[in-house]
């Protein structure tokens, strides 16, 4: 089956500096879609980014990610983090087999803590 | 309104007692999901309803039940809670006519079993 790996449980960054949250995956499918969800404290997870196109940069709310099928990665990046970016970030994938009913395979999540 | 609501937000249960969690959405989504989230683990899909059809994951088949009396509501039922059921339970919904549809999540119910 599919697997999604987020190696860092916690990433701490000083406000104004760049950050990259790692996401790698394993799947037998070539036609897959990837998602980044963000969960702020005491709130519901919500979609941040979505992509299914290889080597195409996707951006939203200052964050960006590029799906690289050659390296099985979909890292999330931001050039200058803000205090309000502190949250839990999940990477997830959907493959053609599970896409029919919208099933997602999640990583364990990376908590981003931004300090002043 | 893209809100998914979950009740209660916090639930305390005794070992061996039943637990019933409720989820609702008003987006007319055809699919509703239940996930279990434990610390430092990925959200684990327990089951989902596509319209009126219930699909349960093989490894949780006997532990969780669910009902969907109408399009808007979905419940998660634990017949006899064990300590291992302590977790955050997330409900989500989506519309499956859209390729790689976004899932809309509720804020979760934190279940503590004592």
Helix and strand pattern of chain A: EEEEEEEEEEHEE
Low-confidence stretches of chain B: none
Amount of beta strand of chain A = over 45%
Mean pLDDT of chain A: 92
Percent in strands of chain B: over 45%
Helical content band of chain A? under 10%
Shape of chain B: globular
Distance between the termini of chain A: 41 Å
The helix tally of chain A amounts to 1
Q: What is the CA-based Rg of chain A, rounded?
A: 14 Å
**Rounded Rg of chain B:** 13 Å
| Helix and strand pattern of chain B | EEEEEEEEEEE
Sheet/helix structural class of chain B: mainly beta
How many helices of chain B does DSSP assign?
0
Largest contact between protein chains? A-B, 27 and 24 residues
Mean pLDDT of chain B: 92
Summed up:
The complex is a heterodimer of chains A (116) and B (114). Chain A is mainly beta and 116 residues long. In chain A, 3% of the residues lie in helices and 47% in strands.
Topology:
The complex is a heterodimer of chains A (116) and B (114).
Chain A lengths: L2 E3 L4 E5 L4 E3 L2 E3 L6 E7 L6 E6 L5 E4 L2 E4 L9 E3 L8 E8 L1 H4 L5 E2 L3 E6 L1
Parallel strand pairs in A: 2-12
Antiparallel strand pairs in A: 1-4, 3-9, 5-6, 5-10, 7-8, 8-9, 10-11, 10-12
Chain B lengths: L3 E4 L2 E4 L5 E7 L5 E7 L6 E7 L2 E4 L8 E6 L2 E6 L8 E8 L9 E2 L3 E5 L1
Parallel strand pairs in B: 2-11
Antiparallel strand pairs in B: 1-3, 3-8, 4-5, 4-9, 5-6, 7-8, 9-10, 9-11
